[in-house]
């Protein structure tokens, strides 16, 4: 019986020992998983930060695309209007052609009259004059008649010549006016269409950049989703391990109760002293097991997750313009309303006028007026803040503000507000030395 008791106690100790050894292993696994989760959660935070940055870039690009689309829309309207004006002017040209034909016919008829008179004069010997006609009268009555005839003929010749000269002058004036108007409109149409091509190219570039950002965002979101799935899977593993631990503890508790009951039955069949000793031993073992269980449980708890201007005015004008660099779009006729200014839509002259207005200087918003709004100086005397002009589609067709170092800031059709190099390339070719210093 004593041997049986010893065997039962041994079984109890082995059973209780196995009860707390498994959770210790599980605790180590939970710690490793939590460590993995910490790394994954850090990667998720980085992905979320990147997505936020990409969204900010997308918002900026969206605004730029909206500005470009508005500029394209308004430029298209101007192109359409210019085409209509060209069509109307062409109709004027066609009407003028008919008028010219009538004038030319009248001129030809008068020339025929003059030719006939010249021929008649030649056939008479070429030496008949009005005086001879008058002195060839047969009597006084005939003389009076001849005087009246000569006067009429002389006045008629003068009238014909005067009408001839007037018609020719009118013809030339009409031709010049219509041709100038038609030429200006055609030049404007070419300029607008060129701008439209550049603006549409700018839009395509922005859309391309947007597509790349969207693709990058989609990839980052996929990575985030994948990481979140891994994190959820690890969390599920931890929950599973904890549940297994609870089930194992429950099973072991039931097993412990059964073994303890068997031990008590064995004790009752032995001698009293042996039973007391066995009871003391069992009590000590029970306390030791309880202490081990407490220590094992503590170790099984999961660890927490690781948590140069020429004056003050010109300098201010240049500085004011910098805010629109990379944040504006060229718009023909733009920059003259609060809406355009708020959305960074300028043409060259309006931008210059706006920039100087920020410095407290009032300037007109047209290139021709700006060209006459200050003191013309030599290009060799240029200083930051001086206005520089370029011969694009017409003389002084583009204007900007010189910033020094052979560069100027202005609203260009291809870039919007930007600093451009006037020492080489297109701007060097179109700069003819026209510089104005603002008074």
Automatic annotation (TrEMBL):
Residues 265-288, 302-312 have a biased composition (Low complexity). Residues 1-27 form the signal peptide. Residues 30-113 form a coiled coil. One of its GO terms (biological process) is proteolysis. InterPro entries: NLP_P60_dom, Papain-like_cys_pep_sf, PcsB_CC, Peptidase_C40. Residues 311-438 form the NlpC/P60 domain. Residues 249-313 are annotated as: Disordered. It comes from the Bacteria. PROSITE patterns: NLPC_P60 (PS51935). Keywords: Coiled coil, Hydrolase, Protease, Signal, Thiol protease. Residues 289-301 have a biased composition (Basic and acidic residues). One of its GO terms (molecular function) is cysteine-type peptidase activity. Pfam families: CC_PcsB, NLPC_P60. Belongs to the peptidase C40 family. This is Peptidase. It comes from Peribacillus asahii.
